[in-house]
Amino acid sequence: MILSSGTKKPKIHSSAYVAGGATISGDVEIGAGCAILHGAVLVAEGAPLRVGANTVVMENAVIKASGGSATQFPCTIGERCIVGPHAYVVGATVGDGALVGGGSRILNGANVKPGTTVDPAAQVTAIADVFGEVFNQEPGDDVRARAAEAYARFLRKTHAQDARLDDHQTVKPTARRSASAPEPPATQETDVGGVVDAMMLELAELEHRRQESVKRQKGSK
Q1: Helix or strand holding residue 147 (H, E)
Q2: If DSSP codes are grouped into helix, strand and coil, which group holds residue 182?
Q3: Nearest Cα residue to 117 out of 94, 88, 144, 140
Q4: What's the pLDDT score for residue 117?
Q5: Entry pTM
Q6: Residues facing 44 on adjacent strands
Q7: How many helices (H) and strands (E) does the chain have?
Q8: Helix (H, G, I), strand (E, B) or coil at 152
Q9: How far is the CA of 7 from the CAs of 26, 27, 51, 81, 132, in angstroms?
Q10: Distances from the Cα of 209 to the Cα of 178, 193, 196, 205, 206, angstroms
Q11: Domain 2-127+160-165 classified CATH 2.160.10.10?
Q12: Is 67 helix (H, G, I), strand (E, B) or coil?
């Protein structure tokens, strides 16, 4: 499901694969050759979210950017990264070629260096006072309740005008691309219908070739 959030719409490269069960919302940009698998959630809430080329976001991973009037936590995932299943990345920067292990948590302000492996179920954080630096709440016995109330108010406002867009459509894979063949457009707004499962198309093409080979072998006997 692909959603606009206010005036912000996702931009997804035409060669990226986005599974039908994934959710992409708001100011999210997904680069060329990416694979966003079933159950993944990529949401920009008041700050931009960027995913570099040829990155894989696996099943049920959550990647978020957030920001209000006082603080901004954009989120950037570099090129050629893998974000493992059930990982949670919010307001952080993940460098090129990094591996984020399944079930790990990378929190606001964290910076994962290029080529780094974050172990499964690990937690990476750069903020000591979450309620003060993230939720802008003064210390006190009721700080958790005040943070929840403020965050709920922020989310209601941010998502009040969300609208579902037509699904992104990937480019049909081809066996070979000639040097003179034009490249697909760099980005496109998500205003075309039908998610295409690239893997199924490849399998169908392989099966077609197999059948043609069998026919030729039978004809030569």
Answers
A1: helix 143-158
A2: coil
A3: 94
A4: 97
A5: 0.74
A6: 65
A7: 3, 22
A8: helix
A9: 8, 9, 20, 29, 29
A10: 20, 28, 20, 6, 5
A11: yes
A12: strand
Record the tokens describing residue 196, joined without a space: 């295409």
Cα–Cα distances in angstroms (integers) from residue 95 to residues 16, 89, 114, 116, 128, in the given order: 20, 13, 4, 8, 22
22 by DSSP, 3-state: which? Answer: coil
Q: How many residues does the chain have?
A: 221
Amino acid at 82: I
- Domain ranges in the chain are 2-127+160-165
pLDDT of the chain along its 221 residues, tens only? 899 888 889 999 999 999 999 999 999 999 999 999 999 999 999 899 999 999 999 999 999 999 877 789 999 999 999 999 999 999 999 999 999 999 999 999 999 999 999 999 999 999 888 888 888 889 999 999 998 998 898 888 888 878 888 777 665 544 444 444 444 444 444 433 333 344 445 555 656 666 776 677 676 66
